[in-house]
Each structure stands twice: as structure tokens, then as C-alpha cells.
Amino acid sequence: MSELLLDAEALYLELKRGVQRLLTPETALVGIWSGGAWLAERLAADLGVAAGTISSALHRDDFGSRGMAKADHTKLPFDVNGRDILLIDDVLFTGRTTRAVINELFDFGRPASVQLAVLVDRGGRQLPIEAAFSAARVTLNSEQSLRLIRNEAGAFSFEVK
Q1: What is the pLDDT of residues 110-159, one digit of tens each?
Q2: What is the pTM of this model?
Q3: Which of 34, 40, 73, 125 could form a disulfide with 55 if both were Cys (CB 3.0 to 4.6 A apart)?
């Protein structure tokens, strides 16, 4: 089996270019906790746009097997109503986390639009969720996991298990 090598910093630059193309004057970035929140924070600083974070904890369909995660990661320092929202995530897999955060987002209001941009799309969708932009597409077997890591200096890398 070959080893998967992904340059997370190079993919971040590609994600930044893709996000720039999706921005409107009314766009706010919303990072999905935790890897997507790290990306959104950095994108907001690099692009000069509003950003917040959102957690899927309260709307997950698997909390019975995973347990309730800490649910206080949702921080949206802007009005969601009528706003173009660009969800940011590190890895898109089944689509279930995205579904949960969309439910959470609508608890805060009714956005004008919601799009999704991801660092890596690994396929394997179980729901009809598709990213408007992905910096990379990879294929992993269902037993493998791909996780974004941020070091103390803020640089990104990946861990594959």
C-alpha cells in the first residue's frame, strides 16, 4: 500500500484561491469545529472577511455511539439572517457533519445562501452534500481517517491513520 502524502500548507493556498472566487460583499466564513475553524480563522485574517465557528455537537445523528461532545464551540459574531455563509471544513467525508452544522446554523437565522469549501474531499458521501470548492480530492478506504493538525506556529499538516 502506498503512503498518502498531502502538503497541507500548499492545499491551504489553493483553498484560499478558491474561497476568494466564492466571496461576495455579504459573505461570512463559518469554520466547522475544529479543523475547519482553524482554516476559517486563518482565511479571515488573510482575506479580511468576517468569520465565526460552528459545532455539530447538538445536531449529530451519532451522539448515541459517540457521546455528547462539548457544544460551546459555536460563535457567530454577526447576524446570519440574509447573509451569504461559506462553511469551511478540513475534510469532507460522509456529509453528516455538514448536515449537522447546517441545522445548527439555521438555529441562528436564515442565511441568504450556504456554500461549502473544503481542504480535502475524500469521497464516501452518505448524504447529497457537495463542496462548491475543494483544494484536493483523495481516496482512502473507509477504515482510514484523515485529520488536519495545526502546530504551535499555526502551520497545518495531516495525520493519516
Answers
A1: 999 999 999 999 999 999 999 999 999 999 988 899 999 999 999 999 99
A2: 0.92
A3: 73
- 30: cell is 463559518
Please compute Rg for the chain using Cα positions. 15
Picking from 16, 20, 25, the residue whose alpha carbon sits closest to that of residue 82 is 25
In 3D space, the residue among 113, 128, 127, 146 whose CA is nearest the CA of residue 23 turns out to be 113
